[in-house]
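User: What would this chain look like folded?
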Amino acid sequence: MAANETAPRSHDGTGVTPLSGVGSAVWYDPNADLELGEPPAAETVDPDAERARFEDARDRARTELERERERTAERVGEDEAAVFDAHKQFVDDPQIVDGVEAAVDDGLPAEHAVDAAFEDPIAQFEGMDGRMAERADDLRDVRDRLLRLLTDADRVDLASLSTGSVLLAERLTPSDTAQLDSERVAGFATIEGGRTSHAAIFARSLGIPAVVGVGDDLESIDDGADVLVDGEDGAVIADPTPDQRERAAAGRDVEVRSEPVATADGRSVEVAANVGTPAELEGAVAQGADGIGLFRTEFLFLDREAPPDEDEQFEVYREALAAFPEGRVVVRTLDIGGDKPIPYLDMPDPENPFLGERGIRRSLGPDADLFETQLRALLRANAAEPGTLSVMFPMVATVSELEAALETVASVADDLASEGLDREVPELGVMIETPSAALTAEALAERVDFLSIGTNDLTQYVMAAARENDRVAELHDPCEPAVLRAIERTVAAGHAGDAWVGMCGEMAGDPDLTELLVGLGLDELSMSAVTIPDVKANIAAVDTADAETLADSATDAAASAAVRERVANRDSDSDPDPDSETP
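Assistant: Here's the prediction, encoded as structure tokens.
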């Protein structure tokens, strides 16, 4: 696109990271080598041979997906890596497999049969609204993977893009985005996509400037053009002016605050980082995190043939505490089951893993030895380093589960004392992720120091909408009034029991919801490190009384659309109709 010297044109979309970058445009077409052409005559096709080719491609696809899952879990995080589990399910989806085999029986080669079998499912998702439409990208990703394996087509290596590249594409699949190197890629922009797409989630986790959903207008930018990607304002600018370049190079307008923050009227709110590996600690400190609000320990147990021993865990927990000597580090004990299987453990394969053995249920049952070893390492690390260690138990559903976990902590402390080892019992807490925990939060809070609301799972269980089930993705919205009321009840119960109450998950890190969360009374918010400066800035601008008024209005709403309308209109002179259900 030719430069406009006076006013470079802005191509507007949805900004998904509060970051900006400038670089050279690189157009990406993942299907360039996947043109299949016309199929051969049906009578020349051997159905048995084509079915065998298809089965071979499926086997190789599963292997690739497992490998990419492992890499993504290490680089980005376990929650983000779970998308590849969903992709493996698509590889084995009976509707798709039956469609391929039927097309082969009709005389199509395996690659043409795969292309045909995915056509209707992709079209069905594209015809839906919001997050459901974005799930079509997952199906495309699986389809293209199978086609590449069947045709021996080369895959573009996005991990080796030239430093300073700005990637432009119609869309980016999870497999595409997981390859990106934040040290090389100055940003990316897509024609399609929304804030909840996997590409957007990965961009936030990796800290890459990104704008999605720009529309066909993005195609007016030529390959090789200088491009500015403003992930905060949602703008993509070709041939930016020197002033625009300077502002982008200067970084974000929002200040990184290393010190704790308080609202405009003086109420302190702790802002912490979600961390999935020790490699993320440095980034959390750099973005001004007060501490760690969720230290996921699953990385220690995955992708290996045997569990980590006590000393290995001890060193990792010491490293986390050393990164925040004056802050709080909240460690979640091992949360496996559901979408987090571990190969060396004897784990069942239930029809609905999210309603089976997960988290504390396994720690008090088949994984009791692992649980005790982890607690030993945590109590020793707490005695060895300054800072505040807090330990929370995941997926607690009953008071008896919590009491059993507390008894295990006391027993481990006694064992360490009898062995003459330094130990210190940390703050202890419960993750509120189930409706039963929210409904019994008063009793739970009386027994612990803190409650931490895991909004991803809480939303899943309150709305009976599995996180990885694309067909109910629209229901997986933390702004649903039922979820907000569960949060409100939990905060009130925690404070009544003299426990502080935090939140981790995507909701905590959405700057648009900061005022609402302050109004609901949260004492701590934990999020991806990249959004910490924005959330801190928003907290500093909040008046608690106004925030509480907003929270009262939101929890009285009848639908999530009304909640989001009230949040969007919080600065307007007049309140929206309190009975409104839609914008």
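The CA atoms of residues 390 and 426 lie 5 Å apart. If you want, I can go into more detail on any region.
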